[in-house]
Every structure is written in structure tokens, then in C-alpha cells.
Write the C-alpha cells for this entry.
Amino acid sequence: MIKDEVLAALRERGGYVSGQELCDRFSVSRTAIWKAVSKLKEEGYEIDSVPNRGYCLLTSPDAMTEAEIRSYLHTEKMGKSLVCFADTDSTNIQAKLLAEQNAPDGTLVCSDQQTKGRGRRGRAWDSPPGEAIYMSLLLRPDIHPEHASMLTLVMGMAVADAINELMGGESAGIKWPNDVVLKGKKVSGTLTEMSTEMDCIHYVVIGTGINVNTQKFPKELAQATSLRLAAGHSFRRAELIALCMKYFEKYYALFERTEDLSLLIDEYNRLLVNRNREVRVLEPGNEYTGLALGINNQGELLVRRENGRVDEIYAGEVSVRGVYGYV
Ligand code: BTN
């Protein structure tokens, strides 16, 4: 769409771009450029137009639109096929529907809000409008179904690194297996679902929620935080989505090479906030405390028990808490 391309060109330049340059670049008329700029203004973009200089993007709304996300996206595959909703039931549900309609590998579904947002362990995921990211990435990996759960960890790493790049620091980490935490509180979670046929994966949907500009959480979400609460100012959701896709693409390529986390393990363990901490392992019918050492190549958490034995914990049924709190 011309509008998306004009927005990307203005953002890339960061200054004035002449109307003629835009016409030549996209092989369209002056009127088409003028119409695209008018549409962007209607969507809340402030664009200055000066005769003989052209157009300059002054401010942008924090919109979860295709144009806005595309203007930040520089990936080869992840998010190139992009579907954005103002409102939907759940981006995971929509991504699964698109998968059944043959949507391509790397399709990203985003929504400004969700009415049936779902979390892990059958919980609901609170999804109010205008402040958070709700996104689901559709993948068609050529891997054994048993290895798919590791993709959740890959996304956790991508989100943590994306947040750190956006916030300009090293403050985000991972609580095993894939919660992203800021200052000891949860800022993002991921729910991965998959469809298989025999021993083959039909598709995988990795759904991630990130609290970006949330200013207040309900009482029952006392362990939650947002980028805004942690940093004291707001962030552009579209920019963060694009960064998540950038890091996911990079890490996914490394994961695909070995079908495990061997090439990612050092980076994951560096981000792991549980590392070298006492954790409470909550396994149905078997709860105990131990020292979290890091993950192995399969993404299992290594926990040294008091008797010196090291357990390999598989994320499925087990969860881990800090001994003194969430982390
Ligand atoms: C968790 O419980 O930590 C996982 C939360 C996953 C929420 C995201 S929001 C986008 C996608 N759509 C959903 O319905 N759930 C995931």
C-alpha cells in the first residue's frame, strides 16, 4: 500500500522528503502521494508539508496498525505477512484460523485489544486496548513436534532482548521458561500452541503479550509491570513489535540449525533471572527447593537439590517460583 510505503520512507529519512522523490520511488502520481499523506494525517500522524521541500514526519500515534509496524520492520520473513486487528477474540485463535487457510510461515497477527485473551494453564490474559502488545506468530517449522516447546524459550529471549534494546539497558530478563521480567515483575508471557499430523508439525502459533504502556494493573495482577512503569515514560508498541521480530528471526535461524538450544544456551542463561538462585519447584505432588543452575540444550531447567542431585525440569506441568517471591 502506498500509504505504508510513504510512512516508511518518511520515518527512514527523519527529515523532509520531496513529493517528486516519493512519486519517482513508488512510480505513482503526485495526487496519490498527497492522498496517502492525507490518510496518514487522518490516522493521527502529524506531517509537515512545505512547498519545495516536501513532507516531514513530526509525530506518530502509538498505533498497532499495519502501516506503523511495517515502517519499523526490517526482517526477511518474520512479520512480513502481517494482519492487524483493532479488536479480536485472541490473536492465537486468529493465527490458527489463518494457518488453516494456508497463511505463510512467519505470518504475524497483532491486535490492539482482545476479548478472549488466553494465558498458560487455561488462565485468561487481561487484554485492554491502547496500552499493550498482543501478537501471535505463525510458524511452519520442519522439526520434530517434541522440539516445538523450545520455541517458547526462543521467543522469550527475543522479547527480553527487544525490550533491552528499546529501553537502552540490560534490565529485562527471563524467568524460566519464558516469562520476561523487569525489576522482579512480569512484563510479558508467551503461550505456544501447535497442530500436528502424525509425527509432523502442521503449524505452531507463538502468542505473546507484552505490557508496554500500562499504568495500573488490577489488584490480582500484583506481580505484573510494564515498560512504562519501569522506565517512567511510554514506548511505541509498533517499534517493540518490530524489534521482537528482528531478534526472533535471528535466534530462530540458530535454533533451526540444531533443533535445540545449543547455539542459544549462553545467551538464554545470561538472561535467566533464576540463575544461581534458590527456587521452589512446583511439580504436582512433589514440591521442593533447590538451586537453579541454568538450562540444558533442551530448555529444561537444571536444579541442584539439597542432596546434590541435579534434576532436569521440563516446563510442561512444572512451574518454578522464587523462594521469597515471584522470581
Ligand atoms: C502467560 O500466561 O504467561 C502467557 C500469556 C500469553 C498471552 C498472549 S497475548 C497474545 C496471544 N493471544 C492470546 O490469547 N494469548 C497470547
Observations:
- The longest strand covers residues 185-197.
- The first helix runs from residue 2 to 13.
- The chain has a mean pLDDT of 95.
